[in-house]
Amino acid sequence: MPDQPDKYQQVKGVIKSLGLDQADLADKLGVKQASISQALNGGNNKAFQRIVQILETEYSITSLNQHLESAVGNELAVIKNMLQNLQNSVDELRQEIRDLKKE
Questions:
Q1: Span 11-38, pLDDT tens digits
Q2: At what angle do helices 64-102 and 3-17 cross, to 10 degrees?
């Protein structure tokens, strides 16, 4: 049973990474948003399967894990770049402080 929450969280993560929301999915499936919410929380397996099918057919998501790893990997690369830029700035400031102390 521990796999169940992971499956729903993965699908929620994929939906978020695609910039979709529950209203978008409800429109695509022709159901109310409450049905989507229920499905994404494990309350409606049939609707959940339809959501997964839409992700696979309309958004070419063949592997939820692979898609999430790719999305997270891209975000991590951006974060690493930002951290490196911050580190460079800190190093420059340290050098300027050393230079000021020498004067």
A1: 888 898 889 999 989 998 899 999 999 9
A2: 70
Q: How many domains does the chain have?
A: 1
Q: What φ, ψ does residue 5 adopt, rounded to 5°?
A: -60, -35
Q: Considering the entire predicted model, what is its pTM?
A: 0.57
SS3 of 21, please?
coil
Domain housing 9: 3-102
DSSP line for 38-90: HHHTTS-HHHHHHHHHHHHHHS----HHHHHHHHHHHHHHHHHHHHHHHHHHH
How long is the chain?
103
Half-sphere exposure of residue 41: CA atoms within 13 angstroms, side-chain side: 8
